[in-house]
Amino acid sequence: MGKAIIKHIFAKDKKIKLTYSDTFFIILTFDLLLIALLKAFYQKFTKQLFLSVFAQRYANQYLKEENAFTERVTFLVTTIMLINVSLFLAKTIFGDSLNPFDFWNVFIFTTIFFFSKAIIIRLLGHVFILKALAKLGVYFSFLFDRVMGIILFPIVVLLFFSPINSSPILLVFSVVIIALFLLIKIFWLWKIGIGGFGLSRYYLFLYLCTLEILPLLVFTKVVFY
After folding, report:
1. Residue 126 sits in which domain range?
2. Side-chain half-sphere of 189: how many Cα atoms within 13 Å?
3. Number of folded domains in the chain?
4. Which band of pLDDT confidence, cut at 50, 70 and 90, is reported for residue 20?
5. How many Cα atoms within 13 Å fall on the side-chain side of residue 101?
6. What is the pLDDT of residues 96-155, one digit of tens each?
7. List of long-range contacts for 55-59, beta carbons under 8 Å, 24+ apart
8. SS3 80
9. Residue 159 and residue 174 in contact, taking contact as beta carbons nearer than 8 Å
10. What is the structure's pLDDT at 31?
11. 186 within 8 A of 212, measured Cβ to Cβ
């Protein structure tokens, strides 16, 4: 009788672990499918999006060619970004105790944060009658997040399914990538805001600290402290 109870407990535990693995395997498979769609059908526009990180002329070209194809690319890349960023945050925050419920909570919070940021930028554009700047601001602010989200994919896969405990190394490597993208983003937003539209340095600095730098500092504090 005692052996039967112990066997039942271990079988139940095994079932829970299998459910955990299956859940994140399905999410990452769906994630990979979206990346494959970009590669197969929207390679030209995806390439422009990646090159926009390093040269503004590609960003201008992408925005100028705004159509149904670029909208699909934007939707797909944004979805990939939300999934990968949420998976990365959830795994680094909860570690081995992560469960699907925790992930969905992080996913909802991440989605709300990014959409709120887009709404705030557009509202500021309406208030200060700078709609063109608001459009560029949303594009460049999300551009680096979207590209970073795709680059994080292999790191996320290793975090969840690596046979060795490489989490500390991957975490440090990820923070370096995120910090690098943040620096490039700040550079471009500062250059466009000051050089292109003559914005006040004070207000631009306030925006960068509030919506770009502060979230990274909060994440760092949650994970490392």
Report:
1. 2-224
2. 29
3. 1
4. low
5. 2
6. 788 888 899 999 999 998 888 888 878 877 766 566 667 777 777 788 888 888 999 999
7. 56/188, 56/192, 59/139, 59/140, 59/143
8. helix
9. no
10. 92
11. yes
